[in-house]
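Q: what sequence does this backbone want?
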């Protein structure tokens, strides 16, 4: 097989990986905490640049914590099975609305600290996010 055919096959095999990079994350923050065990919350902007609706299924951290997708209804927080992001639209994970709760922290989160997480979507996309600890 000549070199051009090999390059073409490799590009064809990698195209689905490039094509599914449709979620853009910005302004990711996490609330600092005063002590271990105190819950926190992660907020961010999620933009779906694709032509299909995508659902955020769950989030994970390398730290020994539990992350849950949450929303607010009638002033009460509740866990969600997913967060829908319509095609060509953005949603905000923000205080008083959709957000990611962080439970069982083994260490406090200090102002300015980076808290890495991974977001898992129903189209197979996994997005790595660095949430910065900030009070805003």
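A:
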């Amino acid at each position: 097989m000549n070199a051009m055919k090999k390059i073409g096959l490799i590009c064809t095999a990698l195209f689905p990986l490039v094509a599914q990079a449709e979620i853009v994350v910005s302004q990711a923050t996490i609330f600092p905490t005063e002590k271990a065990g105190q819950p926190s919350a992660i907020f961010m902007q999620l933009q779906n640049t694709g032509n299909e609706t995508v659902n955020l299924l769950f989030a994970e951290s390398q730290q020994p914590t539990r992350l849950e997708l949450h929303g607010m209804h009638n002033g009460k927080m509740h866990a969600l099975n997913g967060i829908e992001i319509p095609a060509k639209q953005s949603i905000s994970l923000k205080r008083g609305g959709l957000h990611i709760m962080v439970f069982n922290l083994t260490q406090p989160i200090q102002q300015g600290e980076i808290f890495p997480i991974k977001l898992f979507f129903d189209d197979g996309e996994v997005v790595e996010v660095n949430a910065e600890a900030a009070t805003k």
